[in-house]
Amino acid sequence: MSTILLVDDEPELLDLYTEVLELMDHRVLRAHDGREALEIAHARRPDLVVTDWQMPRMSGVELCQRLVQDEDLRDVPIIMHSAATDPHAPGVTAFLSKCSELSEFEEVVNRALTDSGVYPQGPPSHSPYLEWEHEHACSMGQ
């Protein structure tokens, strides 16, 4: 089972992405900002980090910088998701728009895990309800 650290300050998206990743048979660690994520990463060393770009206390960009500079964490792949257009940050393996399809989110997670030598746990398996939740969150400017 892969361990994925999911970082987002928007509770609705954190809940939605957690549910998708758990349906894919991943263990999910959750953080609400970069500072909390860095503490969790040091304690639990995830197989993958999926982070928002803009967050309070420590942004996703600063989190990426800290992960890349850390000898124990620099090899952990990072996926950044944002409502902004393709923000760049050190160590980012892939970028996803927050309003991309859930199937694309699943595909990018699986690809990042495979490329890093961690075997993805399960095939994409989201429900129509999750698609509706995701579309609703995106239509509200999330």
From TrEMBL:
Please state every residue range assigned to the domain named Response regulatory: 3-113
**Which sequence positions carry the modification called 4-aspartylphosphate?**
52
Which keywords are on file for this protein? Answer: Phosphoprotein
SUPFAM superfamilies per UniProt: CheY-like (SSF52172)
InterPro entries reported in the protein's UniProt record? Bact_response_regulator, CheY-like_superfamily, Sig_transdc_resp-reg_receiver
- Keyword Hydrolase: yes or no? no
Q: Which PANTHER family match?
A: RESPONSE REGULATORY DOMAIN-CONTAINING PROTEIN, STRESS RESPONSE REGULATOR PROTEIN 1
The name this protein goes by in its record: Response regulator receiver domain-containing protein
